[in-house]
Specification:
With 229 residues, the chain is α/β, with parallel strands linked by helices. 40% of the residues lie in helices and 17% in strands. The strands form 2 sheets. The chain has a 7-stranded parallel β-sheet, with helices on both faces. Helix 1 packs across helix 8, helix 3 packs parallel to helix 5 and helix 5 packs parallel to helix 6. 31% of the residues are buried.
Length: 229
């Protein structure tokens, strides 16, 4: 199951799994997200011969009961659902807390209740020494997932975090914004000294798959990736 599965990562990850012959024995991918339009658009782009392997599940990570139902008989959860825009977080702080922190705990509880084998939470470089609310909510989320390994008791379940930088070209990211501003011949930036860590979607997927195979539970995996000014 992929929470926030209609986002840039979930869409690309699903397509790559369906294309890859190494995953031909994959039984089902559950796309868990709030937006019926995005789910419909995603379904229309999937090869009809492979569509029976994808189950679309309308739901919000804030809804613990719905998550409990969605994670029944699930082996692996990739938690990609989050509110992410820094300025919007500053103006709507508790909405970000409800999704990024309370939602994270709901994913943990549902995974424990349904004896999921492996849970990977996607994080951000903004969770390192955060100075904004979005980063702070993701830091709290990371702490919840790593400490969840202390709550599992006799259950055979692993919780780990994958923390990487900005995904090139993802929805709402800075590269598409800059391309749209190309005619203006000037780009708004936060600070001339600012740098950004970047990873493309294919490298992000490879890294997540590697971490899913290597994790023992409790890790925060950080890739070595380039940055630019």
């Amino acid at each position: 199951m992929i929470t926030g599965g209609t986002g840039s990562f979930g869409t690309f990850f699903t397509n790559k799994l369906l294309e890859n012959q190494n995953f031909k024995h994959l039984k089902k991918i559950i796309i868990y997200s709030r937006d019926e339009l995005k789910q419909t658009e995603m379904a229309q782009k999937i090869d009809k011969k492979k569509l029976d392997k994808v189950r679309f599940f309308i739901g919000d990570v804030r809804d613990r009961d719905r998550l409990n139902r969605a994670t029944e008989d699930v082996d692996i959860v990739i938690h990609a659902a989050a509110l992410k825009h820094v300025p919007i977080a500053e103006n709507n702080p508790f909405e970000f807390i409800k999704t990024n922190i309370i939602g994270a705990q709901n994913v943990i509880d549902a995974s424990l209740n349904n004896r999921v084998d492996n849970v990977i939470a996607l994080s951000t470089d903004k969770a390192v020494s955060p100075i904004n609310l979005y980063g702070a909510t993701k830091l709290a989320s990371d702490k919840l997932f790593t400490s969840a390994n202390l709550m599992k008791g006799s259950k055979n379940i692993k919780f780990s975090v994958v923390r990487y930088g900005n995904v090139f070209g993802s929805r709402g990211s800075v590269i598409p914004k800059f391309l749209n501003l190309e005619k203006n011949q000037s780009f708004p930036i936060t600070d001339i000294k600012m740098t950004r860590f970047n990873i493309d979607l294919m490298d992000a997927i490879k890294f997540v798959l590697k971490c899913m195979g290597d994790n023992l539970g409790g890790e925060i995996f950080v890739p070595k990736i380039p940055s630019y000014r």
